[in-house]
Amino acid sequence: MDFFRRAFADARLRYHVSKVVLAAIATPAKLSAEFLSLVEEHPLVVLSLLRDHLQTGSPHTYAYLQLLEKIVDACSFSFHAAMAADLALQEKLVQLAVTRAEGAERRKVRHLARLTLLEYSRMFVDVPELRSLARLAGLVEKLTGKSLMRALAVENKKVAFIDLRPEDIILISPVEEPLNAPPSPQRKQAAWPCHACTYMNGLQATACVVCKTPKATRAASSSAHEPTGEKTVSAAEILNGTLCHEKSGSTATPPRLSTEDGVRAPTPIRGGENNEVNGKVLAERSAPAAGNHA
After folding, report:
1. pLDDT for the residue 23
2. Would you tell me how many other CB atoms lie within 10 Å of the CB of residue 189?
3. What keywords sit in the KW lines (predicted)?
């Protein structure tokens, strides 16, 4: 019989606490005296009710987190000790702080959960009985691999979009052109490509917007393609013996041609006005020498 009485009294208490909690959530600006007295007298019941509503994706999670923050600031050590002993509540808070947030509402919940754990790490670090609450912030940093304060600072930053300016627009012609076709005058005046990163810069830009490389001048770009002045000699001229040396003081050895006797004779050399040598005469002079050796 006593069991039924206790069960009935416990259910009636939980029902009454839930009604008071709902009223406190409806008016979060100021907590009523009845609510604060229930928190002081029955902290476990209040924590159990709050823990059940701290679910990821629930639309009321943010309101219950705000209520928990107000309770921690307003209540005494007894409620804090009950929180330090409630491991399930701590697990729910850590889960809300590390979960991936998609959408504005979930990001608000995650931001408030991280801020709450950061405050706990400062409030309860000097109390030995409440250090389990102070270690929750370090647990979140270990799970995410990021500093909690830095994560909060990044979440507070906002990105502003500005209107597009005329100089930000680079016109690109949709007309297909062959690769070897010269660029049209309109295309030349529209933009110039960076020779380092190939970014199309505006006509008035003196350096690349992306890599800051100065704009290449026409003289500098054309100097690399100028001919060096060296004369190209074909293979047919070398084989036919018509290789000519323009400079008279050249010491290069000319190629030699083979005769009928197997002796290699020099090809005609044209080095100057008085230095012409007939290759045929040299071949005749070298032929007896080859016979003597034989």
Report:
1. 85
2. 11
3. Metal-binding, Zinc, Zinc-finger
